[in-house]
């Protein structure tokens, strides 16, 4: 118990870093994945091909390798990057590739007639996406995406390997000082679980909220 | 019709193929303002494809489609340059389309389905759009269904919302593609009655239908399509009379004759 009280301030710091990294990754990957996902479905052939190549490559690489590739690979290319941003970039690439697939899946689940009905009343492409496609696709997109956010939170633990003091690394450091591994790992596991469980609850809530369309 | 008045819709030598398959093989057609033209013909003869070309839901390779003198889909000047997105959207807003499968927006109520084009394309204030939507939904007999989602409506009701959505935009021409063929028989008439009334009020229409009796009663002219071409056309009575000399038309119509007798 004393160990845990001693550890809490350190863990809080790490916890905040973990949340910050996760938040950045979630926002960037959502924005990028949305644009590329739309490109994958509606873009010209070359765009479709490039996005597909990007997505398949990224998803074929383990996150950990991706993190090291960015951290050690960017500087020789003349792109200065510190451990923190290397972690964020690598996780964003990984999440972004997932978002692309969720977007593609969600959009493809909508009957072709919807786009055509939008065209027929004179909506432009962007208007059709905004008022016809996205409001329907969001229902299919959100549950897997929110579940995917939990991957980002869990995956962010890997950036501790670059020496960033996130939740994982702060646990390691406290253990280094107190030599009480088990209670601290359990506490760490509990914190990760608490974050992700609340995300799953959100996902279930969202699913119900968007159940207005009967299939 | 005045001889030098140009038709509202003019199609010249329209050709369209999907890959190797030639689907439209040189269609010539004209629809005057206020005219209701029915297209009949065997399945696979290219009727749907023709309508989709008129709304540029399909591109076409050769020939021309003009609405009020403006080429659909391609810039004027004859070099086959596709219109830009906003330009295409503007052109499409001039043609209303009612689909066989309704294609209502399932996340929007009946009123919102009708209002979307009014607010986003015609840029009408919400209040005014709502009034127009209510007006048209009443016209198609859906006074009590204005705020219902499509999933809460019967097929016939959904299709009437589809019609309201199209005509509320005040299109120059209304395109209807077998709009009753997905409906249970007992729901067909409530939809056809709406169309018949629009025709009587002078809405310009091009309608593909397999309801021969309806085509005969509600249209000014019938076009018989066969194998990607216009095989016969004329006012309903004249067209029916041609059946004697046109074997394909005769074969097509004979399928319906039995159902006419009772
Ligand atoms: N998108 C498409 N790709 C390939 N072939 C098509 C496509 N749409 C229609 N066709 C073909 O074109 C022909 C005419 O179809 P359609 O215009 O739907 O005929 P109709 O409406 O008269 O039954 C059919 O043989 C159909 O298989
Ligand atoms: Mg058809």
TrEMBL record, chain A:
Its chief place of residence is: membrane
Pfam families according to UniProt: BPD_transp_1
Q: Which residues form the ABC transmembrane type-1 domain?
A: 15-203
UniProt membrane topology term: Multi-pass membrane protein
Matches recorded under InterPro entries: AA_ABC_transptr_permease_3TM (IPR010065), ArtM/GltK/GlnP/TcyL/YhdX-like (IPR043429), MetI-like (IPR000515), MetI-like_sf (IPR035906)
Q: Which UniProt keywords apply?
A: Cell membrane, Membrane, Transmembrane, Transmembrane helix, Transport
Where would you find this protein in the cell?
A: Cell inner membrane; Cell membrane
Which residue spans traverse the membrane?
15-42, 185-206
Family as reported in the entry's similarity comment: Belongs to the binding-protein-dependent transport system permease family. HisMQ subfamily.
Listed name of the protein: Amino acid ABC transporter permease
What organism is this sequence from? Ollibium composti
TrEMBL record, chain B:
Q: What is its main location?
A: membrane
Asked if the record carries the keyword Membrane, the reply is yes
Where is the protein situated, by its record's location annotation? Cell membrane
Q: A Pfam family for this UniProt protein?
A: ABC_tran
Which ranges carry the ABC transporter domain? 9-252
Question: How does the UniProt record describe the way this protein sits in the membrane?
Answer: Peripheral membrane protein
Q: Name the source's superkingdom.
A: Bacteria
Q: Which GO terms describe its molecular function?
A: ATP binding
Q: Which InterPro entries match?
A: AAA+_ATPase (IPR003593), ABC_ATPase_HisP-typ (IPR030679), ABC_transporter-like_ATP-bd (IPR003439), ABC_transporter-like_CS (IPR017871), MetN_ABC_transporter-like (IPR050086), P-loop_NTPase (IPR027417)
Q: Which UniProt keywords apply?
A: Amino-acid transport, ATP-binding, Cell membrane, Membrane, Nucleotide-binding, Transport
The entry sums up its family as follows: Belongs to the ABC transporter superfamily.
What protein name is recorded for this chain? Amino acid ABC transporter ATP-binding protein
Q: Which species is this UniProt entry from? A: Ollibium composti
